[in-house]
Amino acid sequence: MLSRADNSATFAVGAALAFFFLGGLLTTVVPPMVDKSWSRPAPGLKKYTPEQLKGRAIYVREGCWYCHTQQTRTLVADTKRSGWKGVDSPISTPDEFVYDTPHMFGTKRTGPDLSRVGGKYDTQWHKTHFRNPRDLVPGSIMPPFPWIADKPEELGALIAYIQTLGRAKDWRPDQDYEK
Ligand code: HEC
Q1: How far is the CA of 142 from the centre of ligand 1 (A)?
Q2: How far does the centroid of ligand 1 lie from the alpha carbon of residue 112, in Å?
Q3: Cβ–Cβ < 8 Å for 51, 164
Q4: Pair 69, 106: CB distance under 8 Å
Q5: How far apart are CA 6 and CA 9, in angstroms?
Q6: What is the C-alpha to C-alpha distance for residues 173 and 179, in angstroms, rounded to an integer?
Q7: Which atom of ligand 1 is found nearest the CA of 141?
Q8: How far is CA 49 from the centre of its chain?
Q9: Could you report the per-residue pLDDT of 119-176, keeping only the tens digit for each?
Q10: Are the beta carbons of 178 and 170 closer than 8 angstroms?
């Protein structure tokens, strides 16, 4: 077979494509068919309310996902970073994201991961932070969002969405701000 691939470009390209598609099938199509928990919502996962969906649309519109990811990976650095008072946060699992289309996993971690930020701060903290992050976190490179902060409806929706993040798993030992 190897010498045939050496002698025939058609065979080599055909075989490469066949293996490529086989790899694609085995890593993307087959796993959710074998493990159904991927598409089943986590027990604590709630559907988004219309207000939270509006907030999610603002998150997309403002490009928050350029700087923020929403996935606690299996790394100690991640579970510690999203942890709370010495308790490590649980890692992200697919069943937490079944209502997220498209998902907001993101790729670039300029800012901290937000997959467990729901309930970490209260509404007033977020209001102040979105108006000007540097009022709360000196030296923060997160841009201010005054055009959201000046619209109570948009601000409320965005905060309502942020407060849902990571709430499917009940893990924070004590303090957990509802709103
Ligand atoms: C240019 C990159 C950048 C963009 C764009 C950005 N952020 Fe941030 N964000 C940061 C950085 C850096 C921090 C850490 C410093 C701070 O808390 O201000 C942060 C912190 C945060 C925190 C606090 C996280 C924690 O665990 O303390 C929240 C919540 C947040 N951002 C939400 C948002 C939302 C919502 C948007 C879109 C409206 C957004 N960010 C846009 C960079 C960014």
Answers
A1: 5
A2: 7
A3: no
A4: yes
A5: 7
A6: 17
A7: 12
A8: 18
A9: 899 999 999 999 999 999 999 999 999 999 999 999 999 999 999 999 998 788 766 6
A10: no
Distance 52 CA to ligand 1 centre (A): 18
Q: Which amino acid is at 5?
A: A
Residue with tokens 């991961």: 113
Whole-angstrom distance, CA of residue 16 vs CA of residue 28: 18
CB atoms within 10 A of CB 156: 17
CA pair distance 33, 110, nearest whole angstrom: 34
Q: Quote the tokens at residue 69.
A: 């990811």
Closest ligand 1 atom, CA of 129?
Answer: 18
Atom of ligand 1 at shortest range from CA of 134: 18
| CB-CB contact of 36 with 111 (8 Å) | no
